Amino acid sequence: MSIEIPFTKMHGLGNCYVYIDLVSQLIDIPSYSDLAVKAADAHTGIGSDGLILIVPSNRADIMMRIFNKDGSEGKNCGNGLRCVAKYAYEHGLVNRKSFKIETLSGVVDAEVHLKDGQVDLVTIDMGKPVLDRKRIPMKGGDQEKVIDEPISFNDQTFNITAVSMGNPHGLFFVEKIDEAPIHELGPFLADHHPAFPEGLNVGFIEKIANDAIEYRVWERGSGMTQACGTGACAAVAASVLTGRLSMDETNTVHLAGGDLYIKWLSDSQHVLMTGGATTICKGIFYL
Q: Where along the chain is substrate bound (predicted)?
């Protein structure tokens, strides 16, 4: 007998996940990892970048758990957080415009912005970027921070800046985003490089203005995606660290799926991310 699982499919700038509400309903799911793999398949499932569960929390108003399309569990997802915030507010899981969401990397503050009674934009306080090499984590090197550090690939040398936003990101600056070696360097660093014991989200940045960058990303466990919220935050942090962007400015990050607005605050050192969240469809998945 199959298990009937009500779901909502949502996306943040094209970064789409299947969302399952386990706060207002109880469903006996044998394996979240297996469900993520099956649901993400575009031919025999629903089709997505993975699975996000909305579950009760003892530390916050709700909790988000993320499973990539390969079944691995992630610690944080910026686009996912915005969608969870939208779902939670519109479905009455929370009754305030500002509330807290727990992730495996910690608790974050969320604020929804309404238009015609519906959630239009969401601001997430993503917390402080982690810059310490050991906490990212990244092996090797003499410096505590990884800023424009050389790394080799196929007899070529690239300069990497590493930042964690609850999950590890390696950022590379390029002259032209369309010529970035995403499909070559991305999968190698994401899953195979010995310097990154937990893998890596690999991002490429082109500065196009004093307050704007183009950004593309290869995500560990999912491959190339339309957008990555934590990656956009990490990209702005890396750009500030290397003198390309300024703190306390609202910087626009242009991703393949749309724009995010990122500000790194000098007083609290927290990164604020604002962007949209969209409901695609709802249905029943038969497991």
A: 15, 68, 78-79, 167, 201, 219-220, 229-230
**pLDDT for 192:** 76
pLDDT tens column, 33-83: 999 999 999 999 999 999 999 999 999 999 999 999 999 999 889 999 999
- φ/ψ (deg, to 5) at 40: -75, -20
Are residues 165 and 208 located together in one domain of the fold? yes
Total domains in the fold of the chain: 2
Instruction: List phi, psi (to 5°) of 270.
Output: -85, 155
CA count, 13 A, side-chain hemisphere, 119: 30
pTM of this prediction? 0.90
257 backbone φψ class: left, alpha, beta (φ>0; ψ -120 to 50): alpha
DSSP classification of residue 36: H
Are 64 and 53 in contact by the 8 Å Cβ rule? The answer is: yes
Q: Are 118 and 223 spatial neighbours (Cβ–Cβ below 8 Å)?
A: no
What is the tally of helices (H) and strands (E) in the chain?
4, 18
79 is in an annotated binding site: yes
For residue 198, give both structure tokens. Answer: 């937990």
Q: Within the chain, what is the greatest distance between any pair of CA atoms?
A: 59
Specify whether 20 is located in the same domain as 114: yes
CB atoms within 10 A of CB 259: 16
Question: Catalytic positions, please?
Answer: 77, 228
Q: Does 219 show up as a binding residue in the annotation? A: yes
The length of the chain in residues reads 287
Q: Is 229 annotated as a binding residue?
A: yes
Would the annotation count 201 as a binding residue? yes
